[in-house]
Amino acid sequence: AAPLRVLGIESSCDETGIALVELPGGVRGAQPVRLLAHALHSQIDMHQAYGGVVPELASRDHIRRVVPLLRQTMTEAGHALASIDVVAYTRGPGLAGALLVGAGMACALGMALGKPVLGVHHLEGHLLSPFLSADPPQFPFIALLVSGGHTQLMRVDGVGAYTLLGETIDDAAGEAFDKTAKMLDLGYPGGPALSKLAEQGDPTAFKLPRPLLRGDNIDFSFAGLKTAVWMQQQRLVAAGTMTEQARADLAASTQAAIVDVLVAKSLLALKASGLKRMVVAGGVGANRRLRQQLDAQCAKRGVRVHYPELHLCTDNGAMIALAAAMRLQAGRAEPSLAYHFDVKPR
Ligand code: KG4
Ligand code: ZN
């Protein structure tokens, strides 16, 4: 069978991502998805001055970037636009105006090429992203999805067969990183900055809460941590002991609290399901301490942990093209020639 090529467009937040993937044996072939090329532009520098993502600016920048990135992707892949069989885009969740840029581009391209379009759930992209790594997982597995907007544990039995086991009742893990980093004047996005500063600090220096850790509850809560960090910081400032070292210690203690909860809940989900395989995806999955602690705990229990390649942890087009291709291969997708814009911000 002829290969099937899927273009993926991601524009849900502050990253514009385009990628071309291929199912070498077509939709009926059993071979895994191959990434042919991808291009990414991060708006982080633009939003940094505002301490967070400004939706209006994000939309405008996606519009500026999407065509050059598409050209770059096709050139790198060495294929003409006409060789695209399906155009996939992120349908949601995300910023409405930002999502519309990707959806609009997908529909316009699909219409011009006479090819169908397919909306993809952003989290499904993250969830399946380890399938593009050199050491892809096998179903079934437990997935820990940790991004700026979501913190979920799921049981994954196959493409589209997802069971939610637990999720955050307030802030997401990435939000906890970002908000505490902001308190420590580390700027945006806080996750990478906080974890960098934490390397100089003592993770046991300050006692911070690990909410919902007792019992067999698989839900998460991070709102209390934010308050605890703030109070600790106020105490240090009042005592005149907010030194560089204290700041690093507080960053390290905060990171340790977040990671402890993520690891403990993951172990609970693994134990309850009896599964011996785990996938970690989403921006916070890039965190080094999380990887070290989870790997160590899982190794003790004979559990294999799979991660996406580091550069595919945060938002990108490759995961969207991949999710679309895997859905098509599993017979669980209905690409459409109707070209109606259906974005789902929530
Ligand atoms: O998946 P993602 O790129 O976007 C969303 O869909 O939200 O995740 C972004 C989140 C941000 O909150 C960012 O601070 C966090 O991932 N993040 C990290 C690290 N790298 C990114 N958090 C902790 N440690 C990191 N190394
Ligand atoms: Zn994301």
Automatic annotation (TrEMBL):
It is an enzyme of class 2 (transferase). Pfam families: TsaD. It catalyses: L-threonylcarbamoyladenylate + adenosine(37) in tRNA = N(6)-L-threonylcarbamoyladenosine(37) in tRNA + AMP + H(+). GO terms for molecular function: iron ion binding; peptidase activity; tRNA N(6)-L-threonylcarbamoyladenine synthase activity. GO terms for cellular component: cytoplasm. Binds 1 Fe(2+) ion per subunit. Fe cation binds at H122, H126, D315. It is found in: Cytoplasm. CDD domains: ASKHA_NBD_TsaD_bac. Residues 35-321 form the Gcp-like domain. GO terms for biological process: proteolysis; tRNA threonylcarbamoyladenosine modification. Its EC number is 2.3.1.234. It comes from the Bacteria. Its cofactor is Fe(2+). Required for the formation of a threonylcarbamoyl group on adenosine at position 37 (t(6)A37) in tRNAs that read codons beginning with adenine. Is involved in the transfer of the threonylcarbamoyl moiety of threonylcarbamoyl-AMP (TC-AMP) to the N6 group of A37, together with TsaE and TsaB. TsaD likely plays a direct catalytic role in this reaction. Belongs to the KAE1 / TsaD family. This is tRNA N6-adenosine threonylcarbamoyltransferase. It comes from Leptothrix cholodnii (strain ATCC 51168 / LMG 8142 / SP-6) (Leptothrix discophora (strain SP-6)). The lineage of its organism: Bacteria, Pseudomonadati, Pseudomonadota, Betaproteobacteria, Burkholderiales.
